Amino acid sequence: MDSLTWIAVASIVMAGLTTGFGTMGPALAEGRAVSVALTSLAQQPDASATITRTLFVGLAMIESMAIYCFVVSMILIFANPFWNAAIASVAQAAGK
Amino acid sequence: MDSLTWIAVASIVMAGLTTGFGTMGPALAEGRAVSVALTSLAQQPDASATITRTLFVGLAMIESMAIYCFVVSMILIFANPFWNAAIASVAQAAGK
Amino acid sequence: MDSLTWIAVASIVMAGLTTGFGTMGPALAEGRAVSVALTSLAQQPDASATITRTLFVGLAMIESMAIYCFVVSMILIFANPFWNAAIASVAQAAGK
Amino acid sequence: MDSLTWIAVASIVMAGLTTGFGTMGPALAEGRAVSVALTSLAQQPDASATITRTLFVGLAMIESMAIYCFVVSMILIFANPFWNAAIASVAQAAGK
Amino acid sequence: MDSLTWIAVASIVMAGLTTGFGTMGPALAEGRAVSVALTSLAQQPDASATITRTLFVGLAMIESMAIYCFVVSMILIFANPFWNAAIASVAQAAGK
Amino acid sequence: MDSLTWIAVASIVMAGLTTGFGTMGPALAEGRAVSVALTSLAQQPDASATITRTLFVGLAMIESMAIYCFVVSMILIFANPFWNAAIASVAQAAGK
Amino acid sequence: MDSLTWIAVASIVMAGLTTGFGTMGPALAEGRAVSVALTSLAQQPDASATITRTLFVGLAMIESMAIYCFVVSMILIFANPFWNAAIASVAQAAGK
Amino acid sequence: MDSLTWIAVASIVMAGLTTGFGTMGPALAEGRAVSVALTSLAQQPDASATITRTLFVGLAMIESMAIYCFVVSMILIFANPFWNAAIASVAQAAGK
Amino acid sequence: MDSLTWIAVASIVMAGLTTGFGTMGPALAEGRAVSVALTSLAQQPDASATITRTLFVGLAMIESMAIYCFVVSMILIFANPFWNAAIASVAQAAGK
Amino acid sequence: MDSLTWIAVASIVMAGLTTGFGTMGPALAEGRAVSVALTSLAQQPDASATITRTLFVGLAMIESMAIYCFVVSMILIFANPFWNAAIASVAQAAGK
Amino acid sequence: MDSLTWIAVASIVMAGLTTGFGTMGPALAEGRAVSVALTSLAQQPDASATITRTLFVGLAMIESMAIYCFVVSMILIFANPFWNAAIASVAQAAGK
Amino acid sequence: MDSLTWIAVASIVMAGLTTGFGTMGPALAEGRAVSVALTSLAQQPDASATITRTLFVGLAMIESMAIYCFVVSMILIFANPFWNAAIASVAQAAGK
Amino acid sequence: MDSLTWIAVASIVMAGLTTGFGTMGPALAEGRAVSVALTSLAQQPDASATITRTLFVGLAMIESMAIYCFVVSMILIFANPFWNAAIASVAQAAGK
Amino acid sequence: MDSLTWIAVASIVMAGLTTGFGTMGPALAEGRAVSVALTSLAQQPDASATITRTLFVGLAMIESMAIYCFVVSMILIFANPFWNAAIASVAQAAGK
Predict the structure, then answer these.
(1) Are residues F20 and G86, on separate chains, in Cβ contact within 8 Å?
(2) What is the set of domains in chain M, with CATH numbers?
């Protein structure tokens, strides 16, 4: 197994793990926030404007963390500096 | 085991893991959101419009995370840049 | 153990794991949703139309995740691009 | 250990795991749904028709997941494409 | 360790695991269902016919999963196609 | 370590594990069922006939799972087809 | 490490594990049953005959599982067929 | 590491584990039973005779499991048939 | 596997893990904070100014921890001093 | 690593583990029993004689399990029959 | 793998782990503190000055622990004495 | 690694583990007991003499387990019979 | 890998682990203490002096444990006696 | 890796683990005790003298366990008899 393969395998594994497991926390957190919003709406329908607004701000902040994970996965697959360096070094060796 | 095989195995394993485990969080979160929506509907049937609307926005945001996972799996199976690079390098070696 | 065997073993293992474990989250979530629907029906029988409708939308969204897992398993068993590539390469080597 | 053996062992192991563990989620979910149905029946005997109907729809959807797992196990034992390919390749080698 | 032994060991291990662990989920689920049935009977003795009927349908569906596990164990011990194939291949080699 | 030893060791290990761990689920489930039966009896002594009957049916169904595990252990120790096949093959080799 | 030693070590390890861990489930279950019996007695002293009778039946069924585990341990230590077969085979080899 | 040493090490390890972990379940169960007995006594001092009697029967049955574990440990340390057989075989070899 | 590859693989793995798992705690914490804010708003709409202000300060402090994790990931991918030192040392060796 | 060392290491490890982990269950159980005794005393000061007596009997039975663990540790350190046998066999070898 | 690489890899791994996991405790703790502050504000708006002050002191103390973790990570990446010593020793060897 | 080193390493590791983990159970138990004592004091200040006395007896019994762990650690570090035997045997070998 | 490197790697790993995980317990404990303080303040604003004083004493004692962990980490990084001894021994060897 | 290094590494690892994990139990226990003390103070401000006194005694006893852990860590780092013996033996070997 040469260097290129090791880097490719590590990138594939981490891209999957980061997205696959990293969305668990935000998903549960959003599920909780949405649930409580629904309870609050049923309990106090008059405050629905404030509740909805606060809910969306909160969901946005929680969603931001899932997006960090997705961004790291995408960087690892499509813009991986270690892979680029390894490819360049192989090309350089071949061009000699 | 050559490089191609390693990359293929890693892609297969992570495609399965990412979808298989990555849907656990969103599934539980949606189950919770739906449950609470049903309780709220039973408790306050008059607010059903607001509750249903908020529920669907929430489900959409949670579902988005399961879709991130599914997308990463599909990328790993059908549009894997590391696999393409390895195939190209093998073809190039054979074409020499 | 040659390349074909490694890919076959990895596909078998992940097909089982993805379906076997990936249905745990949706199953628990559906169990929760159904339970709460029953409680709500017992508590507010008049709202049964709204409750049933919301329940079925929710179950459909949760079931979709179990189906993602099943689809990934089926792709790994019956439409695995890595396996096809490996078979083709073996056939090509034999045809030379 | 040759290729055939590896594939056989992997199939045996995953057939057992997929059924053995994959029924845990649905079993717990059905246990919960049945329990709540019984509570609801005791609490609101008049709504027993609606409750029973909703319960059976729910149980059917949850049972479907256990059946996905059982189907994957049966495919791995009795209709395994990788095993068939390996057997065919061995027969072909012997027939040469 | 030859092929026959590997297959035998894997079958023994999975037969035990599948039954040993696969009955945990159904057992807990049945325990829950029975418990709630008893509570409901104590609370609403008049509905005992409906409660008992629903309980038995539920227990049957949950028991079905434990039986899937037991069936897979028995198939692995007494009707294992991989073992049969391996035995046949050994006999064929000896008969040559 | 020859084939016979491997099969013996695997059988011993799985016989212990299957009984040792497989009784945990049923034991907890029976503990729960019995506990709730006692609570129900204390709460509604008049329904003791129905409660006791339902409890015994439930305990029988749960106990059946512990017995599946015990049966598998006994099969692995005293009626193991793989062990018999291995013993037969050794005897045959010695009788040649 | 010869065959005899492997079988002895496996038997020792599983005898300990089966009893050591297999009593955890029954112990917790009995603790629960006894606790609830005490609560019920304090709450409804008049029903003490029925409660005590039901408790003893329940304890007997739960204790039966701990005894399965103990029996398996004793079989593994004092009536192990694999050990006997191995001892016999060694004696036979020595007697030749 | 010869056979004797392996058997000795395995016996030492399992003697410790069986007692060390096997007392956890009974200890927790007894703690629960005693706690509930104290609550019941505080709540219904008049029934103290029945409560104390039931408590002692329950403690005896739970303690019996801790004693199974201790007995297995003592057998493994002081009356281990595998160790005796190994010692005898060594002595026999030396006496030749 | 040379030094460069080891450092690249370790950086890829930790970048993924740090972001993927490090966002779990903050996500759950924000989910909790948002949920309670919604409950409080529904319960005391008059105090919405104070509640919203305190919520945003709290979210900012919790978010700061997710950002620590993301920063560490970015440093490991794009400004890794160990990688730079290794690259420099390789370049120096090549320039000699 | 000779036999003596293996036995010494195993004894040291198990002596620590048995006491270190084996006291966890009894400690938690005693903590629970003491806590409930305090609650009961505060709730029913008149029954303090009965409560205290029952508490001490219970503590004694729970403490007995911690003492089993400590005894096993001490046996393993100071009265280990395997160690004595090994020492004797070394001395005998040296005395020849 | 030479010494420099080992130290680099260990530093990278621990820098990620320390920040990635070390923020979990403080994050959950802050989430709890903020949640309770919001509940208290909704319940007793008059005490908002005292509540807010106590909250900020508490958040500061909890945040301090997350900062310990971040500081250790930064020390490991940018001011690692072991790395500096290793670099110096390599430079010294090269300068000889 | 010679015998002395193995014994030293094992003793160091177990001394740390026994104290480090073995204090967890007693610490949690004491925390529980103290907490409940405080609640009881606040609820029934008149019974403070009985409560305090019972608390101290309980704390003493729980503390005794932490002290068992500490004693085992100290024995392993400062009065380890296996280490003494090994040292003596080395000295004897050197003195020959 | 020579001695120096092993000691450096171990020190780096433990410095990170000790701080990274060791702050989890204190963080959760402080979060709990602060939360309860806020609830108490909202419930009994008149006792704020006593509550605040007790809170700060408690936080100080809990913080002390996080500081023990940080101190151990700092000792391992900057005042490690084993590292110093190893450096000294290397210098002495070089100076010979 | 020679003996000195093994002992150094083991001491470093255990010093970190003992303090890092061993403070978790006491920290959580103190957090609980402080929390309950605050609740009790808010509920019964008149008993503050007794509550505070009992709290401090309890904290002292819990803190004592954290201090055991810290003491063991310090002994392992600065007064390790195994390290001293190893150093002495090396010095003796060098002085010969």
Answers:
(1) no
(2) 3-78 (1.20.20.10)
